[in-house]
Amino acid sequence: MSKGGNILGIGTDGLAGLSVDEVVGNKVAVTMVMHYYKQLVDENASMKNDLNTARTYVMGYDRKSTYTKVAAWLQALGAVGVDSRAILTHRFHPILTHPC
To answer: What are the pLDDT digits (tens) for 61-86?
Structure first.
């Protein structure tokens, strides 16, 4: 999980360029670290929203793709069913069978 003193690119030995010793008892340093932490939380929320939006688009595309495939198969089966019924009953469209 951590490699070389950082997790996901964030150093574990300090935050916002401050070491633990600099933060302890230093109100300005704690405020700076809290501000940096808030930025990280906001970025994380933004990334989660972007990921959720992308997943929604992918799910919609997959659903549309499935519906398109089903519709194509149903259309093909419907055309075969109509053609075979016309051949079996010798009922052809009048325009197609009219001797011109």
So the answer is: 888 888 888 888 888 777 766 655 55
